Amino acid sequence: MECELAVTVDAVCQRCLEAFRLQLDAEAKLLLLELDETADGYDEYEVWELEETTLRPKDIVEELLVMAMPFAAMHADSAACKALSAEAGDKEEMTKPFAALRAQMMQD
Ligand SMILES: [Zn+2]
Question: Rounded to the nearest whole angstrom, what is the distance from the C-alpha of residue 73 to the centroid of ligand 1?
Answer without folding.
Answer: 9
